[in-house]
Amino acid sequence: MEDNVNLSRLQYEFPGNAASLEDSPFVFFGVPFDSGTSAASGAREGPRAVRAIVQGMELWSEFFSKDLEKAGIYDAGDVAVSHGDAALTGDMVSSVVSWIRGLGKTPIMVGGEHTFTPYAAEATGADALIVVDAHADCRKEFLGNELSHATSTRRWVEKGGKALLVGVRAFSSEEIAYCAEKNVSMVRARAVASANFAGILRDFLSDGDVVYLSVDLDGFDPSFAPGVGTPEPLGISPSDVLKLMDALRNYRVAGMDVMELCPARDPSWITAALAAKLVLEFYASRLP
Questions:
Q1: For residue 1, what pLDDT is reported?
Q2: pTM for the complete prediction?
Q3: Sign of torsion over alpha carbons 12, 85, 175, 119
Q4: CA distance readout (Å), 1 to 6, 13, 123, 180, 191
């Protein structure tokens, strides 16, 4: 069935004891695409690095006190991307996510550049997008390109979706004006450590809203996540995102992604390990 939605299987799966498609409530897949990156390339290798590092990781969630040893996540492989054609690749992402949601399961996407988050979020039927990111990603275009990792949140907002940005600290003046005009909600990096996420989500979400969670790894301080293409100092910590996941347990979350892992800048695999851990902790946070 995967062949009909442009997926390919790889040597490693996530995690090592991955469940069958029938048994797993979550479906993991990669998007090895970085043709639109504006700084260091290499994020196309992100899914491979996450699959490799997780083979040696324990599957117990200390934060959520959940055992994932027998739960497993079905790994559907990677989207068969069209390098250089973000629009076509985005359509492939949409078809994969629609297939996963049609099975009644939750997609977990790992990239790869951040460009494809709005495609995945829209395909889940989400009403609200929560983005952990150093950047607003609300430029109209960047370097002449309207479909890039610097424009992804704006593409979502333009379609009428609401957005909450967490950990942001890097803007253009254009983006500041756009976010104010469109009422894009923000928890800036300097305020995250003391943020009351339960209250923030109550104010941001309406009854019945379906949420999509996106984590751009450059949202973290580079001391936690050096392996990204566009690092920004003065970022947030992994504990901050776990607190956000905890607050989201009371809401309907239709999908999640972890994007912008650049293994070429991650020689000690610090960032790959964090990316894999975030996927595992998200899974644990959704278990009863």
A1: 44
A2: 0.94
A3: negative
A4: 10, 17, 18, 44, 45
Q: How far, in Å, are 24, 143, 208 from residue 148 at the CA level?
A: 32, 9, 30
pLDDT in tens, 18-53: 578 888 899 999 999 987 566 667 899 999 999 999
Q: Which of 286, 278, 283 is nearest to 258 (CA)?
A: 278
Q: What is the pLDDT of residue 11?
A: 47
Q: Which amino acid is at 11?
A: Q
What residues in the chain have per-residue pLDDT under 50? 1-3, 11, 16
Q: Quick one: tokens of 223?
A: 């001391």
- SS3 (DSSP) at 187: strand
Token pair in block for residue 79: 């989207």
Give the residues across from 30 on adjacent strands.
Answer: 78, 110
Report the chain's C-alpha Rg in angstroms. 17
Question: What span, in angstroms and rounded, lies between the C-alpha atoms of 147 and 232?
Answer: 22
Architecture (CATH level 2) of domain 2-286: 3-Layer(aba) Sandwich (3.40)
Give the residue carrying structure tokens 């100092």: 233
Please choose, from the candidates 124, 279, 151, the residue with its C-alpha nearest in 3D space to the C-alpha of residue 217: 279
Confirm if 244 and 279 have CB atoms less than 8 A apart. Answer: no
Distance CA 74, CA 58 (A): 17
Three-class SS state of 100: helix
Rounded Cα gap, residues 199 and 124, in angstroms: 25
Q: How far apart are CA 232 and CA 87, in angstroms?
A: 27
CA-wise closest residue to 131 among 179, 85, 95, 74 = 179
Amino acid sitting at position 110: V
Amino acid at 54: V
Could you check whether the bond before residue 15 is cis, i.e. omega within 30 degrees of 0?
yes
Which residues lie closer than 8 Å to 178 by C-beta, 6 or more apart? 138, 140, 154, 184
3-state class (DSSP) for residue 109? strand
